[in-house]
Structure formats: structure tokens, C-alpha cells
């Protein structure tokens, strides 16, 4: 299923029948996608094509087939690609950094690459984005001496340089504690008021808390594209609590109360209905087991 939302706002990204191959393998398969201002969550299993999609958006990769337009420009054209990068914030899943740099020096280096040539103005911007992610007080600390979560926040800071029109973030909350994740949600929510933010993650709770729209990608194709609330609503009547585990459930696990939560198309014996979450709906959409495509077809019919 692919039903792009239309809110009357300008289109930031358009993918038309985009395919990306690696040798004989297909990472993206005739993908159609439109992104507009706001925060969109991107969910999918490992190998679904999420990182490839983000790398195309970041102009790191070209498509094998199809057309990509970002901010009204063609990333295949060198001049357009340079302009897109000026207006883009990108956080890869694995963000490298010179370990001899301080946090400030690393973000300042990225700002210089983005052609912030006025030194006082650039340094003020570096301070602003470090403050956004709660790292101003550690700006002078060497990157190699920071914790994993602190390095992740510095990597996030560089993505916010210049309040970009398009933010492409791959697993931005990795390594962050609950308080830091909550703080980042506030930053991203504010960014979504004027920018297009695409948040790729395995954390369904981040998408549920932050995003109005979610795109579910699987095997290089869009399985769902629409409001989070509508996807969750499709799981109503298919989530159950029971005293015993059922082997017929698509997915089940023991919760803190000692009972078992089941995601299933039919009620286990003695079960009672539970309020569905986005995670439940995602599991149902994928099918939970080898029959994922059949379950997805049923959910989107």
C-alpha cells in the first residue's frame, strides 16, 4: 500500500518508481514516495532498504532507475546536488569522526564544509546546535573521551547546522537514555514545524510519540504509508492478554504482570482484549512469521 499524504504544503522530496540495485540484489523496488514538512517515521526490518533510501535522500547514492527530486532539484546534476547538501542535515547510522577533535571542533569542521565562512557566525551556530542536544558544557572534550551516547548527540548536532529544510536521521536515539530521548523528541517536533524530517528507527515508541505519519518499508517496497493512528486502529481486536502462551499467535511475550501479550488474528483461550500499540500494528502488518506478505495483504485490503 502506498498512499502519500497531502496537506497542501510544498513537496520536499519526490521519488517516482525508484529502484536501487546492488549487483543482482534489489534494495529499493520501484518506490514511490512523497515527503512534505513535518516529522515522518520510517519503520522496517533489517534489510528492508531503509538505509539505502536515506542515502539516496542524502545524495550519497544515485538511483539505478527512476527519478528523484529533492527540494525541487535533481541530485544527479552537480550544481543541484551541491545546493541540496547546503540545505540538508544528515545523520548516518554509523557516524564517523576524527577522534582527535573536540566536540566543538568536529561540529565546527562540518559547518565549514557546509561553507559557513564567517568564523564568529559559524562558531555561534556550532554553540547553538550543541546546546540543542545538551552538549554545550562538553564542547571542549575530546570525541574519544565521550561516551557512546554523548558522541551520538554530537553527531546529531552537526545535522542541525543551519536549521536545514530536510533532516534525514538514521537511528538518532541509539545510545540515548530515556531523558535524552524525550529531549530529542522536543527538538525534532520543533524542527518539523518548518522542515521535513525523516526519522528511520527500530523504536516504534519514538514514532508513536513524535510522528503523525509513518512509512513501513519491507523488501524495498512501501507496505504502509499513512497516519500512525490509522495503522494502530487496524490492530484493534487483534491484541490479547492471556494467562498462557499460545503457539498460534503471530507474536507473544510475557509481560511484567506475568501474563502473556499476544498479537494474533484470533483470541487465545481465556484471553481478554488489550489496547493496541504501534508495535502491535507493525507486527501484524509484517505477519510476525514467514507469512508476512499474506498478513500484510489482509491488513491493507
Provide structural commentary.
With 301 residues, this protein is of the alpha/beta class. The protein has a domain at 235-300. The protein is 33% helix and 25% strand. It is built from 10 helices and 13 strands. The strands form 3 sheets. It has a 6-stranded mixed beta sheet with strand order 5-6-7-3-8-9, with helices on both faces. Strands 11-12-10-13 form a 4-stranded antiparallel beta sheet. Strand 11 (251-254) and strand 12 form a beta hairpin. The longest helix is centred in the middle third of the chain and has 14 residues, at 119-132. The protein is globular, with a radius of gyration of 21 Å. The relative contact order is 0.14. The model is unreliable at 1-8 and 289-301 (pLDDT under 50).
Amino acid at each position: 500500500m502506498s498512499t502519500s499524504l497531502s496537506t497542501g504544503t510544498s513537496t520536499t522530496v519526490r521519488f517516482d518508481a525508484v529502484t536501487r540495485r546492488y549487483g543482482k540484489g534489489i534494495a529499493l523496488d520501484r518506490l514511490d514516495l512523497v515527503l512534505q514538512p513535518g516529522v515522518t517515521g520510517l519503520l522496517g526490518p533489517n534489510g528492508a532498504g531503509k538505509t539505502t533510501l536515506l542515502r539516496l535522500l542524502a545524495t550519497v547514492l544515485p538511483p539505478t532507475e527512476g527519478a528523484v527530486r529533492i527540494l525541487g532539484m535533481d541530485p544527479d546534476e552537480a550544481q543541484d546536488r551541491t545546493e541540496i547538501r547546503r540545505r540538508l542535515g544528515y545523520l548516518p547510522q554509523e557516524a564517523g569522526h576524527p577522534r582527535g577533535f573536540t566536540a566543538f571542533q568536529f561540529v565546527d569542521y562540518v559547518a565549514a564544509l557546509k561553507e559557513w565562512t564567517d568564523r564568529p557566525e559559524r562558531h555561534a551556530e556550532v554553540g547553538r546546535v550543541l546546546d540543542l542536544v545538551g552538549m554545550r558544557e562538553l564542547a571542549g572534550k575530546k570525541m574519544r573521551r565521550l561516551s557512546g551516547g554523548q558522541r551520538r548527540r554530537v553527531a546529531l548536532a552537526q545535522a542541525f547546522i543551519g536549521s536545514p529544510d530536510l533532516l534525514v536521521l538514521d537511528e538518532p536515539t541509539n545510545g540515548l537514555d530515556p531523558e535524552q530521548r524525550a529531549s530529542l523528541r522536543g527538538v525534532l517536533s520543533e524542527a518539523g514545524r518548518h522542515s521535513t524530517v525523516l526519522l528511520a528507527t527500530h523504536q516504534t515508541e519514538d514514532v508513536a510519540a513524535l510522528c503523525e505519519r509513518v512509512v513501513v518499508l519491507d523488501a524495498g517496497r512501501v507496505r504502509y504509508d499513512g497516519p500512525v493512528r490509522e495503522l494502530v486502529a487496524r490492530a484493534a481486536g487483534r491484541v490479547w492478554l492471556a494467562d498462557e502462551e499460545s503457539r498460534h499467535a503471530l507474536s507473544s511475550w510475557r509481560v511484567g504482570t506475568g501474563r502473556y501479550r499476544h498479537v494474533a488474528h484470533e483470541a487465545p483461550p481465556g484471553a481478554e482484549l488489550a489496547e493496541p500499540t504501534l508495535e502491535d500494528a507493525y507486527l501484524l502488518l509484517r505477519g510476525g512469521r514467514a507469512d508476512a506478505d499474506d498478513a500484510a495483504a489482509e491488513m491493507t485490503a
